Structures are given as structure tokens and as C-alpha cells.
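Re: folding output
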Amino acid sequence: MSPPAAPSNGLRLVLASTSTYRRQLLERLGIPFTVAASNVDEEPLPGESAVDLVQRLARAKAEAVARRHTNSLIIGSDQLALCGRDVLGKPGSGERAIAQLKSLSNQRVVFHTAIHVINTQSNGNEGHLDLTTVHFRQLSEDEIKRYVMRDKPYDCAGGFKMEALGITLFNRIENQDPTALIGLPLIWLAGALRRNGFDLP
């Protein structure tokens, strides 16, 4: 299958992620794009903070894919969820999702979502960090089990899908961009795309 045609600015758009959620978000902007795996090692460096980690990985993913694409705008992104000092990973199974949500009942979780874009035509690059605070309500064990059975959030950090039934688990969400919680801050990205010659809307 041939790649989509480049827009009038001569740049092809490349998402440096194989995440289904990020792909679905980027599709909302209506610009043809391709997907490329970055294969970046995501292990944190000794003493690295959550903020430094997600920003470094977002840039590293964009840089890894940029080396393989000319005349392109590359989008790299990374996300980390923290409850206090505990990093929340993807549960991977129903049992672990239930255990994770039990620990988050009546707690506050902060999502750090970093994004970085690289223009391989001009060598320009810029990045952004979005913080989203999710306040979980008091959850009963029955509610958690019903939720996990219905949404199956095994591949989601925190063990919930905000864009689906997971929205019922919260008292409130504090953020500047609701799409950042899903994994790709579209408000900032739309501005970056315009700055690089893409027509939006």
C-alpha cells in the first residue's frame, strides 16, 4: 500500500507510535498520516523524574522515526500516570485491573503526557507537556468488577478507558485538553501542525 500523498506544504505526517488510541485521536484531525514504530527503550534513567522521563521518551521516539523519513513531520508522544509517587502501569489482565482500581478508589492520579514534533525538512522541533489530574470517587468492589468486565481496560495505564465507561469512575478531571488523557494532546498538536504549514480545520 502506497503512503498518502503529501499536502501542499510538501510534508508527510508520521505518527511515531503504534498505539491504537493515539492513531484514533490523530484521525480526528482529518490529515492523512502513516504510522511507524519507534522501538525506543522506555526504561527510566537512574534518578529520572516522571516529567523528565516522558519528555525524553516523546522526543526520542520522534527522533528515532525522523531518521527514517525525509520531508516529514514526525509526532512522538509518551505518557506516565502517578498516584503519589507510585507509577501506574498497564494492568494487562482483569485481575490486575481490579486490584489497581481498588488502590485508586478515592485517590488522585496525575497523568503526564508529553508530545514532541520534528520537521525533517526544516530540522525544526518543539515539545509540550500536558498535566491531567483525575479524582477517583469512592468505588465499591462490585462497581470495579462490573466496570472491568465491561470495558476490559487491560492495555490502559490506570486501568480505565476515559473515552468509554471509565468516565463513570471519577468525581472530576482537571486539565486543559481532554484528549491528553487518552494519549495525544490534540489542542497543542493542532497548533504545531498549523505552525508547520498544515491547514486546520
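--- second protein (sequence, then structure) ---
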Amino acid sequence: MKVHVIYAHPQETSLASTLHQTVVQGLTEAGHEVDDLDLYADNFDPVLSREDREEYHDITINRRKVADYVDRLMSCDGLVLCHPVWNFGWPAILKGYFDRVFLPDVSFKLTDGQLGPGLGNIKKLATVTTYGSKRYRAMFLGDPPRKNATRFLRVVCNPRVKVQYHALYDMNNVTQAQTSAFIGKVHDAMRKF
């Protein structure tokens, strides 16, 4: 299986970086072909410009600035997002990725006024993330990152997509043993992806 990993964190010494490395290692050990995209290292431009928005619905030209990213996304069988939760959402660079790459005729099809999934190639989807807040606080606020990963992304993928969500809550207050256990859990999940 070809798995596209999308990573979004600017610091090489972060827990997110360790989790990213764990994701890639686990997938590689399982024999998957990994297409690893580090949005920061790639200098991805997350800004949807005025011109981009004006061209958004024109499927003859809307991909021209992000064609490589679209091709990578559309050529994979699985997708794994690896990122922290910031302000109860995706990091801005990752949100910008979705704004710029999840275009009409890419992530969704509009046929005779009916909306349908565009990423039928993606049969497995996973998110590996960390939260600064406790789980109960995230739940009280509706846990938007979990909903984005398990609902929004699900509907643009293959109708039978299998979804995983791996989150370490309250990351600043967990013990080293709890952090290590989470890393081990992620490694095992990726080996079974």
C-alpha cells in the first residue's frame, strides 16, 4: 500500500517530530511505500490568495499551483496526518494545505448539483496528534480536531475508508512513561495500518 504521510510541526525536537518519525518507521516496517510530506521543510505556502480563490471552481486551472501536492494525494491508498492540536484546530500550515489542495474535482466531485467524494483512492486514514488540554475539556468544546479527522476527512475518501484517531491529551502533564506508551501505541498501529 502507498501511504501519504502529511506532517505539520516546525520544530525538529518536538514530540510531534518523534511521533512523525515513529509513524514513518512503523509504516516502513510494515512494508508500505511511504510518501512523506513535511509541510514546513517543504516550505508549503498555506495562503489561499485572491487569485487562488477566483480560480477555485475552475477545474481546468485550479490545480496549477499545487499540482505536485494533488498528484501525491491522489496517488496514495492511505493517508496519515501527524500534527499537534493548536487552539483546538489544525496548525495553520495544515489548514492551508486543505484550503489549497482539497479542490473541486480533487477532494470532492460536483455532478448535476450532487456532491460526492473525490478521494476514492484513500481506503485507510489515520491521525496522530497531541493536545495541550485534557480530554474532558476537548470533549466539552466539541473536539473539533477529532471531528475534522474522523468526519470531514471520512466523507471525501472512499466510502469504506477505515479511520483511526490516536491522540495524547494533556501532553504537558503526562509522565515520560505515558508518553513512551503512546509512542509505542502509535508504532504498533502503523505496523498494522
